[in-house]
Amino acid sequence: MIKALFFDVFGTVVDWRNSIAVEFDRLAKEKGLDLDGQAFALAWRRRYVPAMKVVRSGERGFVALDTLHRENLIEVLEEFGIDGLSETEIDELNRAWHRLAPWPDSVPGLTRLKKKFILATMSNGNVALMINMAKHGGLPWDMILGAELAGTYKPEPETYLTGCRLLHLAPEDCMMVAAHNGDLVAARDLGLKTAFIARPTEYGPEQKVDFEAEHDYDVIADSMEGVADQLGC
């Protein structure tokens, strides 16, 4: 009997690539820079997993994703030859991750699912980031869970299990919803139910994986509303 749905957010619920590209294109226009927002967004995102890997390995103590994003942003600005931004402007660009737009089906699907289940993030994003994103995009979460509360990043088991414990639920009472096979396999190995949503345009031309479900998950859909359909909402 599923009682709670845990959601990966970046890529599954929100379209980070196009959202970041729009923010950077706006800044580039203001500053007179002839640069590609899509290329900038992808370059920034490429540093995401390596930055978390250092924390997961124990080589570095836990720091919030906002901090990792800002450190990575400094590197990307250097890579693109962009200088002259003030600390305030860099901070504002870093907060672009707080303003990511949902995929068109996300809010309608989540609204349907909320009538039957507890909805919680299970994201590597820190709490403030997740709350601001929810306010910006109208995401109807009941609770913010994930890396910051567990003190480590997915796919470390403690991330998922901390969420279960905070809701006083057994893993089998929870379902992980994600567009990434690795995320779902990690959750399934801990006893959670799983739902795959295909987001084949998440990385645009750089997408190489996660075009489709690679395992026999409990739910396989091509939209959030498809998940709601299969779960009887």
TrEMBL record:
- Protein's UniProt name: Haloacid dehalogenase type II
Per the UniProt record, one Pfam family is: Hydrolase
Q: What NCBIfam families does the database record attribute to this sequence?
A: HAD-SF-IA-v2, HAD_type_II
InterPro entries for the chain: 2-HAD, HAD-like_sf, HAD-SF_hydro_IA, HAD_sf, S-2-haloacid_dehalogenase
Which GO molecular-function terms appear in the entry? hydrolase activity, acting on acid halide bonds, in C-halide compounds
Identify the keywords attached in UniProt to this record, alphabetized.
Hydrolase
